[in-house]
Amino acid sequence: MALPSLIDPRKLALQGNLLEGMVDVEDLPRLASAVSAVCGPLQASVQFELDESRATIAHGNAQVTVETICQRCLDPLQIDLRAEFAVQVIWSEEQINRVAANYEPWLVLDKMASLNELLEDEILLALPLVNYHDVGDCTGDTFVPEGEVAQEQAVSDSPFSILQQLKR
């Protein structure tokens, strides 16, 4: 089932609604431009409710598989992205200091808000800064002797690994 793109978070929270479904790739333009390909629809589950202080909150998760480029071998690499989030709806920037510590602010200026933008923001934050295949699965590993790969892994666990590399 497709998730609605525009929602009224206040109404959904008053009713305690749970929205579960998918967001089509075409509705995620920023994610599509940040990766090589989006490999399917974004799956999401979002629970709207009022907390004990009667603030409108939404929490849930989103997941999607994307294809990026391995920074070591420049071959395609599939990554499963998963984001957990908890947001408090605020209606103006003056309310930002009233957001509880365990929530992120979600600024909704009008009555209606874009659920797609919220989910896309959360998935974009889950993207790793640098993408690599696992050691042994990367074609870029062919230029590194096998014993050296194992040694680099052991050295990287040590806090003095930088000094070891300088010594070589």
Secondary structure: elements and pairs:
Blueprint: E1 6-7, H1 9-15, E2 18-23, H2 29-34, E3 37-38, E4 42-50, E5 56-69, E6 76-90, E7 104-107, E8 113-114, H3 115-126, H4 146-156, H5 161-167
Parallel strand pairs: 6-7
Antiparallel strand pairs: 1-8, 2-4, 3-5, 4-5, 5-6
Oligomeric state of the chains in view: single chain
Count of discrete alpha- or pi-helical segments spanning 4 or more residues: 5
Percent of residues in beta strands? 25-35%
Largest sheet: number of strands, sense, barrel closure: 6 strands, mixed
Number of domains: 2
Q: How does the overall form come out from the CA principal axes?
A: globular
**Whole-angstrom Rg:** 21 Å
Mean pLDDT: 86
| Residue runs with pLDDT of under 50 for 5 or more positions | none
Question: What is the count of β-strands?
Answer: 8
Q: Write down the secondary-structure element order.
A: EHEHEEEEEEHHH
Distance between the termini: 57 Å
Structural class, judged by helices and strands?
Answer: alpha+beta
Relative helix content: 25-40%
